[in-house]
From TrEMBL:
It holds the Pfam family Polyketide_cyc2. SUPFAM superfamilies: Bet v1-like. This is Toxin family protein. It comes from Mycobacterium kansasii. InterPro entries: Polyketide_cyclase/dehydratase (IPR019587), START-like_dom_sf (IPR023393).
Length: 116
């Protein structure tokens, strides 16, 4: 997954609460897809869950959790992907590309925030 446009974090913070909707562009291997995210679980500071609906029937569930650990926190993300775009032979290629991009994005997250 590529970078979301500036402002998504601010949209979520400003509109936070179950049922709130925000949008972002998610890019996979150079192909952008507009995702409409609905906050389905919002429990600060423990975490939140977003359900995403994208172009072509793409479905995404993003679960973020924050847990205390010693003098800091452990942040974990679970991402579930679905929809017709991920079925069949082409879907397998798309799913592999998504896994690769998600892993890269999460590694970037760790590099940016691990020392914060």
């Amino acid at each position: 997954m590529a970078d979301d446009p500036p402002g998504l974090a601010q949209q979520v913070a400003r509109n936070a609460g179950e049922g709130a909707v925000v949008e972002s562009i998610v890019e996979v291997k150079g192909m952008p897809n507009r995702i409409r995210w609905t906050i389905v679980r919002y429990k600060p500071p423990e975490g939140m869950t977003l359900n995403g609906d994208g172009v072509g029937g793409v479905k995404v569930k993003l679960m973020a959790k924050v847990a205390p650990k010693e003098e800091g926190s452990v942040v974990s993300f679970d991402v579930h992907l679905g929809g017709p775009a991920l079925f069949g032979p082409i879907g397998m290629i798309v799913a592999a590309a998504l896994r690769s991009d998600i892993s890269e994005s999460l590694q970037n997250f760790v590099e940016v925030f691990a020392q914060a």
